[in-house]
# Entry
Amino acid sequence: MCADPSADTSLNPYRRPHTLTDVRCYRVRSAPAARVAADNRKARHHMPARYGFLSTHPPTRCGLATFNSALVTHLSAGRPPGGVVRVTTGTDDQRPAPGVVHTWSGRDAAGWRDAAAVLDTFDVAIVQHEYGIYPGTDGEQVLPLLRRLTVPSIVVLHTVLSHPTPRQKSLLEQIVAAAGAVVTMTDTAHDRLVVRYTVDPEKVSVIPHGAAEHSGAAGPRRTRPHLLTWGLLGPGKGVEWALRALAQLQDLDPTPTYTVAGRTHPKVIEHHGEAYRSSLNRLGALLGISHAVHFDAV
# Structure
């Protein structure tokens, strides 16, 4: 719940927000804009925020799009409608899904200007960040967009690299500097960011990824230990390490089984076909555990 600013004079509506609660409670503006909005400030504090989202989004098939879609649904419940600025590539289905108010094509390097203008029509901009989804080297075109925004921004980091290139490290540091608040999904990513990168740790919060509630009937209880990996499949998933670990557990009684559930990521198929999935099948055979591994392309 947002604090009542009138009840605590230490809460300064002009400071940069550091947490998601801060962003919900305060509208950060430049001093001239704040003076123009002075008459409406008190009313704004008590109005639900309208969120603008920048991300890949359905019908694009990727984990980021799925996450953003779920986040939009959750944050829009019982609130004024928000809107999605959808980022696409040339191979994506360009038909906009409901809720998409603008499309930023990856083929338009200068498209960040229009995208920023649309996000500025909302109260808060929530930006999903992954290196590969925005135009420019390492997705660098998201940076001028963040700097152009006049509304508070929350950047959700889906990847914090352990061994970034100097360019990737510098870019992420500048993104954190430009953002009003930053979210990582694990404590590991948080610690990696504040220790290995030059960033303001006060800006960074951890909000776990979460998962949808299970609404179906419970399945039959298994008699053997069961490992599960789910989601779109690609080299970054690390399934090969799980297979090697499973091979070390074959002396257990009963022996574990392993299900790899999910289709291959469309971008992986576009560039490499099913080479990764095939390599996993070969590795399972080499390790002698094919009988214990089930690939389910749900």
Notes: The chain has two domains: 5-206, 226-296. Residues 5-206 form a domain with the Rossmann fold fold (CATH 3.40.50.11930). The radius of gyration is 22 Å. Residues 1-31 have pLDDT under 50 and may be disordered.
